[in-house]
Amino acid sequence: IPLKVVMVVVVLGGDKRAGTAGKGVVRMRGGRDWGTGSSILSALQDIFSVTWLNRSKVEKQLQVISVLQWVLSFLVLGVACSAILMYTFCTDCWLIAVLYFTWLAFDWNTPKKGGRRSQWVRNWAVWRYFRDYFPIQLVKTHNLLTTRNYIFGYHPHGIMGLGAFCNFSTEATEVSKKFPGIRPYLATLAGNFRMPVLREYLMSGGICPVNRDTIDYLLSKNGSGNAIIIVVGGAAESLSSMPGKNAVTLRNRKGFVKLALRHGADLVPIYSFGENEVYKQVIFEEGSWGRWVQKKFQKYIGFAPCIFHGRGLFSSDTWGLVPYSKPITTVVGEPITIPKLEHPTQQDIDLYHSMYMEALVKLFDKHKTKFGLPETEVLEVN
């Protein structure tokens, strides 16, 4: 606290030795009076001008914390909650764990039916701080009909798909206002919904498992106006994520096209500029032991462990789990009208898959220079 504030408290009683008893005035170095009303106001102003109370700095720290809480939730919340519940079985609070797991058994199939989205959670202020940290922006290029269902193909995966989460699992970028009447469902690994507490957190944002049962239900038994966002490249694409690289894993990914044909759901290509810029990763070469381990995890568990880093919590000059604050701009392209074919042939699948690849490349080429890429930049389709 500034010294002058302490002096304000002292001077109100006066100082007989200074000859100012009853006047409440004390003179300090420089001859300034510190017992007047104006000096008290000046002292209070100094208190509120302390650097740690600076508004812009506080907002920046809130942005960092909002991003870190999601990263930690993504990485450790499920495992941590599972461990806590298992430990609770061995304590006097064992009944709490029993009740939760009993309810979990009855609620097991809820994620397959779209989960329990909460508009309250999707509108939390924390997501606006999350958005502003990078910042993240959602760009609409075409209207979507509420009488149709959609499969959005999101590219690239990046390390965590932060743009996909912010744009479609929260209202931070106003997805519901930009696409009125459209309900977005971000699809992610089904294994996440076997984790206690984490599953509730994910479902509240409209996140669902990326499996055939869930997608079939949402596209056939949930009415129209549904948009399922699939990060097509998945774990394989995350292994090649690095700053300065624009590459997608798509050439042999055709399952989402088959699902679109079976339900007559229109395909919508999405490219998120900047998704690969927010983390730095150690890339293992093909044939190395590191790549071998990653592929084994991907094959048997469904995800590939990446060795990556961002910045530290308190400084951008240190390493940590906080992503770098690089702009992420997610551009939603023009929908491709898809006919409904209950039994699509391989020829049908290949036709619409090639149309989708062409539309994605055109979307990238049309917008790349707007977001800092040179005209010569080419989207690598693997």
UniProtKB/TrEMBL annotation:
Topology with respect to the bilayer: Multi-pass membrane protein
Subcellular location: Cytoplasm, Perinuclear region; Endoplasmic reticulum membrane; Lipid droplet
Coiled coil: none
CDD domains (UniProt xref): LPLAT_MGAT-like (cd07987)
Keyword Oxidoreductase: no
Pfam families, alphabetized: DAGAT (PF03982)
One BP annotation, GO: long-chain fatty-acyl-CoA metabolic process
EC number, as in UniProt: 2.3.1.-
Leading EC class: transferase
Keyword Lipid metabolism: yes
Enzymatic reactions: all-trans-retinol + an acyl-CoA = an all-trans-retinyl ester + CoA; 1,2-di-(9Z-octadecenoyl)-sn-glycerol + hexadecanoyl-CoA = 1,2-di-(9Z)-octadecenoyl-3-hexadecanoyl-sn-glycerol + CoA; 1,2-di-(9Z-octadecenoyl)-sn-glycerol + (9Z)-octadecenoyl-CoA = 1,2,3-tri-(9Z-octadecenoyl)-glycerol + CoA; 2-(9Z-octadecenoyl)-glycerol + (9Z)-octadecenoyl-CoA = 1,2-di-(9Z-octadecenoyl)-sn-glycerol + CoA
Annotated pathway: Lipid metabolism; Glycerolipid metabolism; triacylglycerol biosynthesis
GO CC aspect terms: cytosol; lipid droplet; mitochondrion; perinuclear endoplasmic reticulum membrane
Superkingdom of source: Eukaryota
UniProt record similarity statement: Belongs to the diacylglycerol acyltransferase family.
Protein name (Swiss-Prot/TrEMBL): Acyltransferase
Protein source organism: Panthera leo (Lion)
